[in-house]
Write a structure and sequence with these properties.
about 150 residues; globular; alpha+beta; about 25% helix; Heat Shock Protein 90; five-stranded antiparallel β-sheet; 3 helices
Amino acid sequence: MPVSEDREDVLLLDVPATGDYLSVLPTATAAVATRLGFSLDEIEDLRAAVNAAVTLLLPPEPGRHRPFRRRSGDDALHCRLEVGVETLQIVLNRPKGEPLPDSGTYQWQVLRALTDEVDSEVDGPASTIRIRQRRPSTEADADTQAHRIR
């Protein structure tokens, strides 16, 4: 489902579900949010929200805390950043995994506190978390060519 009928810029990232690569997702989110004119506080909130979502999606390795798994052969974590005219949507998906933790956990509270809207869906073994954040309305954002990531 597109974020907007008028415009849809999409960034797709697939990263191994290991602690070594998980920092790529909040960093990519921060880069896109910077280009869109989000404030530093809003960018840090989005980074924290993405970290919380990743923690919810990755099952713990026995004897280790979420989400730092280092076994080889783990499935990828999929991230889709959709830039709409009014909304930045971040969709995180784990094709194979355990059910999502209860909605009363700390990570869910963080997600709800730091984002405009968050929802989740479990379809068989696949789990998805969708974060939506309203874009700031700034003059600088009107000219998206000036903010292209090169």
